[in-house]
Design brief:
Elements lengths: L1 H17 L12 E6 L14 H7 L7 E3 L5 E3 L13 E5 L11 E8 L14 H12 L9 H4 L1 E6 L4 E6 L17 H4 L9 H4 L1 H4 L11 E7 L3 E6 L12 E6 L3 H10 L4 E2 L7 H11 L3 E16 L9 H9 L3 H9 L28 H10 L4 E3 L2 E3 L7 E5 L5 H15 L4 E4 L4 H9 L7 E7 L7 H4 L22 H12 L3 H18 L2 E14 L2 E2 L18 E2 L2
Length: about 575
């Protein structure tokens, strides 16, 4: 009996070891392996817009401010959020009238960096870093994505090592949102910025990524295997709450089916909700493995769409753009592929946002109307199922997205089939995310249609994506995010006006007009708003989905193990 009892105990212990994700005993969870679907094109926080980079860097650095899971603006690096009420923000006269806005007043924001904030090499995070970041951001050759935020800063008045007054050239409704001021370490990056046009190639974030002095968050990057994984370890200079995990490994598995298999086999402990399984996979996974995992679906501000290259002669005709959208049965896509959890997008503003106009007309599925528009636009001759114009040219367009994303590839096939029904020959060519975002989209080389998602914050003004001065070009070193090349004077004026209108109802009216023009001009084909599925192992707690562009990893120090 004694032998049998000992044998049963041994078998129980062995079984315990092998049924845990990653093959690790429950008592020894000192590391966490996260699976994501994309590898960053760069680790520089100011260059390129890619969720994979933001997701990883949020564990190693912090913006001055960010929106939390309750959609409230909070300080992460500053000690107190500047407001007009607490006196840390004050309206001040401008030396000259702002030519863009016609305003004669700007705003001064007193910003104090956390007194214990220190780079990973021991150098204090200081106002010298704030000033240097501004110098990089406003330089026309630096290649920064959101250069507009830096251009608006007239001056940074240094009070001491930790406090500065930031003078901005206008008073906006979101005047104290300083999330764009993601600090760079001046003591390390200044040399790389000696030739601004070469900064993209020389930044230490890519040439010396494991340098501890680049990071001041709970973790720092200690190992990078391009395209495969990133290793993060506790940053001992972090001033905040000590994170539970000593080590976090972020594994990149671009194929979502393989990502699911790795979760089940223990190759990863947790799949990032922001960059993980597709909604259809998650629904099936929950039905099969709900005993081992908890699932949460967070609908938010992730806007899946198709950017149209308006330099393409075919797409310059608004009738063709409207026909492409009318040909799509987006309601069927939402219901049949996503179980209705990812609602159709009727514009770039989510119904969850207070500025959404629910009364706007929608593009319903109407292939007959689509065909009539194409006839009217000169694509009336049908040869072998493909429309041709009077010059004998086929109505052929390239559709691109991130390779390995099963849902996007499935959606592509549906779109291709529905467009074929009206005589449009859509050819699919996909690329790895780091190439697609790092080169093809950023340099506007997709040629016709690029499918991806914008993830924004609440009431996010689309300046960088719609304003005419935000088009990436070789001359501005591919800065800006208006990848369609869209230009409209009224849209430019509305964007400028919305930002400086403090009256909510007046601002709402301008938002409604902006949404109406967007649907009329259609520089983009809206598809759906994404619901991110978060699938947690039962033992992993503290991860709170936000539903917007600031990922859950900004609060990674709250993640914990509960057995």
């Amino acid at each position: 009996m004694a032998r049998r009892g000992a044998l049963l105990l041994l078998l129980a212990l062995v079984a315990g070891l092998f049924t845990l994700p990653g093959g690790r005993a429950r008592a020894a969870r000192e590391s966490l392996t996260i699976g994501i679907t994309q590898f960053p094109s760069t680790f520089n926080p100011l260059i390129d817009s890619m969720l994979a980079k933001s997701y990883i860097l949020a564990m190693t650095r912090r913006p001055l401010t960010a929106y939390n899971a309750a959609w409230e603006l909070v300080c992460l690096v500053c000690t107190e959020l500047p407001t007009l009420e607490n006196g840390l923000a004050r309206i001040e006269p401008l030396a000259a009238v702002n030519e863009e806005t016609g305003a004669s007043e700007g705003i001064a924001l007193t910003v104090t960096i956390h007194p214990e904030a220190t780079w990973g090499d021991g150098v204090p995070v200081s106002t010298a870093d704030l000033v240097f970041t501004w110098e990089v951001g406003k330089h026309p050759q630096s290649g920064v994505g959101n250069f507009e935020a830096f251009r608006r800063i007239l001056d940074i008045e240094v009070v001491d090592e930790k406090t500065a007054i930031v003078h901005v050239d206008r008073v906006t409704f979101d005047y104290n949102d300083m999330s764009g001021l993601t600090l760079l370490p001046a003591h390390l990056e200044r040399a790389a910025f000696a030739e601004p046009a070469e900064y993209r190639k020389r930044t230490l974030f890519d040439t010396d990524t494991t340098n501890p002095g680049l990071y001041f968050g709970p973790y720092r990057i200690t190992q990078v295997s391009p395209g495969a994984h990133v290793v993060l370890e506790r940053n001992e200079t972090w001033w905040g709450k000590r994170p539970q995990f000593e080590r976090i490994v972020v594994r990149v598995i671009e194929n979502t089916a393989a990502l699911e298999a790795n979760l089940l086999s223990g190759g990863v402990d947790y799949i990032a909700g922001e960059l993980g399984l597709t909604i259809d996979q998650a629904l099936a996974f929950e039905a099969r493995h709900g005993v081992r995992f908890d699932t949460e679906y967070r609908l938010g501000l992730a806007y899946e769409h198709i950017d149209l290259d308006l330099a393409n002669p075919i797409l310059q005709d608004a009738r063709v753009r409207r026909a492409l959208l009318l040909a799509l049965d987006r309601e069927a896509i939402s219901e049949q592929l996503f179980g209705g959890r990812q609602p159709v997008a009727h514009g770039f503003v989510s119904p969850l946002d207070w500025v959404y106009d629910a009364d706007l007309p929608h593009y319903a599925h109407d292939p007959e109307a689509a065909a009539a528009l194409l006839d009217e636009a000169g694509w009336a001759e049908m040869r072998d199922g493909v429309r041709h114009n009077g010059a004998g040219e086929p109505l052929r367009l390239m559709l691109m997205t991130t390779a390995g994303n099963r849902t996007r590839e499935l959606v592509e096939q549906v779109l291709q089939s529905q467009w074929k029904g009206i005589g449009v020959d859509a050819r699919i060519r996909n690329e790895p995310a780091r190439v697609f975002f790092g080169e093809t989209v950023t340099r506007r080389e997709f040629g016709a249609m690029a499918m991806f998602a914008w993830i924004s914050s609440p009431e996010n003004v689309p300046r960088t994506t719609l304003r005419s001065d935000q088009i990436p070009t070789a001359e501005n070193n591919w800065a800006g995010q208006n990848y369609t090349g869209f230009k409209d004077e009224e849209v430019d004026a509305l964007i400028d006006g919305i930002e400086v209108e403090l009256d909510r109802e007046k601002r709402r009216a301008m938002w409604y007009r902006l949404q109406a023009i967007y649907l009329e001009k259609l520089p983009v084909l809206p598809l759906y708003f994404r619901a991110n599925p978060f699938i947690f192992p039962k033992w992993l707690k503290g991860i709170v989905p936000t539903g917007h562009q600031y990922s859950s990893t900004l609060w990674v120090e709250d993640w914990r193990v509960e057995e």
